[in-house]
Description:
Layout: H1 16-47, H2 51-97, H3 99-112, H4 117-141, H5 151-174, H6 181-203, H7 208-236
Helix pairs in contact: 1-2, 1-5, 1-6, 1-7, 2-3, 2-4, 2-5, 3-4, 5-6, 6-7
Amino acid sequence: xxxxxxxxxxxxxxxxxxxxxxxxxxxxxxxxxxxxxxxxxxxxxxxxxxxxxxxxxxxxxxxxxxxxxxxxxxxxxxxxxxxxxxxxxxxxxxxxxxxxxxxxxxxxxxxxxxxxxxxxxxxxxxxxxxxxxxxxxxxxxxxxxxxxxxxxxxxxxxxxxxxxxxxxxxxxxxxxxxxxxxxxxxxxxxxxxxxxxxxxxxxxxxxxxxxxxxxxxxxxxxxxxxxxxxxxxxxxxx
Length: 238
């Protein structure tokens, strides 16, 4: 029982851990959308109360941020995918030219995981006979050949997550009456950041309160700084 427990929540390609990593990334992307857009619209609100100006600034921030997130994620994941492909090509070449050495290597890797020498050898032989490339990819490289990272999926997920997060402060600053825009935005943003902090902590099996305090504290600081800057610029007539 105790030996099986650590497997729960661990990141395995295509398994629960992999899905949790994607979900955690989505939460963080939404969190970025909330903070960056809130800082932008609150800063503009410090300089002007024009709904048109606030909407324009918020939409510009939403589009720029979501595109930047998507492009950055696409480049990052494309680089990772290229590295995975190169590693698989190298492994395929080694299996073709040095099968005995690769079998010995696989046996050693399985021994390092806690198997006895005899059992590690038997498992290595069976895995190699079944699918040598997959065995080495998963055990040696930590790669599932059928589940390589997809840069388009990553870019789309980042775009969507940031957009969803950015919509909250944008709508909160534009829809309410003039006198309620700022307080409603601040309360909505802090509530959303508390939820993001709680969710990310739960996904990482970490204490929720420190994550919530960090998240809301950072968001509050961002809004205070941008509001003060916007108010100063508005007062100076810039």
